[in-house]
Design a protein that fits this description.
With about 200 residues, the chain is mainly alpha-helical. The chain has one domain (about 20-190): CDP-alcohol phosphotransferase transmembrane (TM) domain (Four Helix Bundle (Hemerythrin (Met), subunit A)), CATH 1.20.120. The protein contains six helices and no strands. The protein has helices spanning about 20-40, 45-75, 80-100, 110-125, 140-155, 165-190. α2 (about 45-75) runs antiparallel to α3 (about 80-100) and α3 packs antiparallel against α4 (about 110-125). Bound molecules: SN-glycerol-3-phosphate. SN-glycerol-3-phosphate binds near residues 64, 89, 121, 136 and 140.
């Protein structure tokens, strides 16, 4: 529409909340209970149900890659998406880790260390939001990829020759999870330091 000078207005239309990227994030959240019920149905002993649970986990994890890409590629980034996306990620990996420990496939300390880091950093992000946004770092993305790979390894009924690789991948995931946690804390402290 022309403005008072006759020029076309360049005010961008608001991004709709109900867009493809946010719908994918919502789908990931919906898949969390579906995944959990499938793991419980497997009791982590029925191979068919374990495979089904693993496939649901992989599909849900894949939406994490796709929703971010769609949001950036088609300019569909919204505040709702920025908040909901990491919550959906952490709900999915958190549910998987708790269930793996519940069924004695993963030591509880691993689940507790990862959950404390994930929930702590999420809370810290909200706490410092008025000073600035702490975006996901490259290390954070590598951490998420390692967690997804490790969880997939534990969920799938692996042949005996491959199963021992799982704890090594999970060990690497724990190390990167803790290291990136400290890095985010350092970023938060720099954000809160008053400018001189
Ligand atoms: O390490 P965070 O908390 O920034 O999380 C990283 C995201 O999961 C990457 O998609």
């Amino acid at each position: 529409m022309p403005d008072m000078t006759g020029a076309e207005s360049t005010v961008a239309a608001p991004v709709p909340l109900l867009n493809a990227a946010n719908l994918l994030t919502a789908a990931r959240l919906v898949l969390v209970p579906v995944f959990a019920v499938t793991v419980v149905a497997s009791g982590m002993s029925h191979a068919g149900w374990r495979m089904a649970a693993c496939l649901i986990f992989v599909v849900a994890s894949a939406t994490d890659l796709v929703d971010g890409w769609i949001a950036r590629r088609f300019a569909l980034v919204t505040s709702l998406g920025k908040v909901a996306d990491p919550i959906a990620d952490k709900a999915l990996t958190g549910a998987a880790l708790v269930l793996l420990s519940w069924y004695d496939r993963l030591p509880w300390w691993v689940t507790v260390v990862i959950l404390v880091r994930e929930l702590g950093i999420t809370a810290m992000r909200f706490w410092v939001i008025r000073h600035g946004v702490i975006a996901a770092s490259r290390g954070g993305k590598i951490k998420t990829a390692l967690q997804i790979l490790a969880i997939t390894w534990y969920l799938w009924p692996m042949p005996a020759a491959l199963a021992p690789v799982g704890p090594w991948i999970m060990g690497a995931a724990v190390l990167v999870t803790v290291a990136t946690g400290f890095d985010y804390v350092a970023q938060a402290l720099r954000l809160r330091r008053p400018a001189r």
